[in-house]
Each structure stands twice: as C-alpha cells, then as structure tokens.
Amino acid sequence: MARKHKLSDKVTVEIGAPAVVAVSRVGEKRWGFHQFPALSRLPDGRIVCTFSKQKDAVASYGGAAPTYASRDGGATWTRAKPEGLALIAPHVFVSELFDGEYLCVPATPAFDAQAQKIALPRPVGSFRAYITNNAYRLRDFPKAVREHFATLPAFRWTPKTKKWSKAAVEYDTRNMLLWARAEGPERFLLPRTWFERRLLKVGKELLYADYRANYLLADGTVPKHRSTVLMVSKDNGRSFQRRATVAHDPTGKDLMGEPRLSLNARGELVCVVRRTHHVQKPMAITYSKDGGRTWSTPRTLMKFGVFPSMTLLDCGVMALSFGRPGVHLSFSPNGGGRTWTEPIAIRRGGSRRVTKETCGYTSIINVDANSFLLAYSDFQHKGKDGKQRKAILVRKITAHTK
After folding, report:
1. 51 and 34 in contact (C-beta within 8 Å)?
2. Does 247 reside within a domain?
3. pTM for the full model?
4. Which CATH number covers residue 41?
5. pLDDT band for position 2 (50/70/90)?
C-alpha cells in the first residue's frame, strides 16, 4: 500500500508498495548472495535489475549476475538475458551515451600476479578496509601489467548495428595505483576497475566518479586510504581521463569511496561518498561549480550510509538513498542538494543487526519527470508460505509538486 510524506509546502512524496524482483532459496543467509541490486535501462526501453549471487570477495569478480527485466515501469519482473551482453557481478550497470549509444563496462576477474609469475613490487602505502590492503605504483610493474590496466573490456550498443558488440575503453593510467590484500590467498590478486554506476552526461562529456582505480594525489603523494577521482570522456565513452580528486581523507581514517555523482538543479555537480567500513559513520558530500575541476571540502551527511544512490528528477527534486542499517530515503526539495530532509525508512534496521536485515546497497533509476524506482534487498522477506528468503525488491517513488 502506498504511503505519503510531506517534504515541504510544495512537495509531497508517495512511496509505492514493493514489487518482488527475485527471491533466494529458503533459509539463504550467506553474505554476497541475493544482494547488491543495480538498475539500468536497455536500448529497447526495458529496465533491468541485476544483483549478486556469489561470495563477496575479489576472487569472485567476473561471475555472471542474475538479471531480471521489467516492461511496465517496475511493476512486474521476469528473468532476462540480453543477447550479446554479459552482465557481471557484483555491481553492473548499463549507461546511455550520446547519439543513442549504450555502454556497459563490467567487472572482470582480478589479475593474478602469482599465476602470471610476476613478482609484486614494493608497496608504496597501505590502508585498512576490513583487512589491510597494500598499494602499488602501476609504473613499477612490467609492461604486460601496465597494458592490462590501460584497457577495460566493455560492451557497446549502437543504433546502426542495433546489437551489442564487444569493445574496449582506454583508461588513464598516469600515476595510477593498484591494490591487493596484504595477506591471505587474495594477496596476489590485483582488481581492475569497472563501471559500477551509470555514467553522467554533462554537456558533451561523460563523467564517472571512481574509487576502485586509485591515483597519486595532485602533489605526487600516495593517498593514505582509498580516494574518489573524477574520470571524464570526451569521445562518447571510448576513453577516460582523470580530471581531479573528488574526495580523500588526509588522515587515512576514512574510505571516501562508493561515490555517487549527480547534477543538482543549478547545474552543479554533487558527489556523495561512503566514509567507513566496519564502524558506522556519516557519509560525506562535496560540490563542484566548475565541471569537476575543483571540489568543496567534504562535509558530513546523515548519520551513516553505504553505497549511496542519488538522482535529480526533471521536476527539480533531488533524491538520495542509502542504507546499513536498513534502507532510507532523503530528499532535497529545491534540488540544490545542500539541505536534505530527515530520512524516511524504507526498510528499518538496527545497529546491532547491521548486516542481518539488508545489505543496505541501493540503486535508483528515473522513470518519468516526477518518479524513480528504488531497488534494495530484504534478508527477512517472507512469501506466502511464511518462510524466510532473501529478496530483491523495487519500489516506485513519486514526488508530487505544486
């Protein structure tokens, strides 16, 4: 049943009932399975929802992502397998480009230095994200490794061919840093970045906020943790160059990752990032008035949040989703992205059960001038038989403006 929330004298939000995309087997509780949903739109107009059905680990990158499609705006979902397109877990998105083209840059298996008999160079830094990770300069690796990270395997759809074809995206490797676990069986696995968000079209450029590809800072120093950088394409997604560092923590305490980039109603760029791994901390938000060349000092946002998703509706309202614990929505009614409403709980969750009710990862896609779909996971979903299953759910959210 739909419920309404008054945001201001001019804006009321209507939250629709959840539609079930897919459910797991009875009793599924493994982390990484039936979670991390991602919403995209295919060239034929269908909305697709992919999710992870594998272990949440570097060694699992490159596995197939279950895919469901909707032809009725998210009301109903059926299993789908787009011809010629490999949708890969853990997070995979399809982006609409200019000239009616589409691009998908999925995750790939990590480069196994040990299997390729390549010795790891001396680390130039380390950071802790659940466990300790080492950072390496790409330039310290042999040519074969440098070439591997300079190209991202992709799939491109064009109106001329009306089909998906394998493609490649050239990626800026100047001052790039690689990372790997400092210990354990994954210490020789070097992950390559991929597009785990949809690209943002601004003017004649495509923008992407990346944190999986790390780089030296502007002064040539190694960041003390992950950092978010802005990547820009001027050739419709065939190559990307690094423009600037969006956010990093000079103390090395905060992740500054999982960025979500959006325009606000003034045409400025807004980026929300996750700050933490284990400990619950506020997210951070930063702004750019010059196309991402310079960014404001990040400030805290909300009380917690992982993998935020954000959008600007054509009606001028901005929406932000985030989770862990639970799943929540907040809005910037005037579209500026500088003030936000108190969170509305979509799926409640307690701080002592932070990973027991939902993964907290959310995905948003606009469906019309006033509405968007929100995808999330519910670990305690119960069907008609009353038995617990993990579920991927989607709700339609509508902003009514005066």
Report:
1. yes
2. yes
3. 0.96
4. 2.120.10.10
5. confident
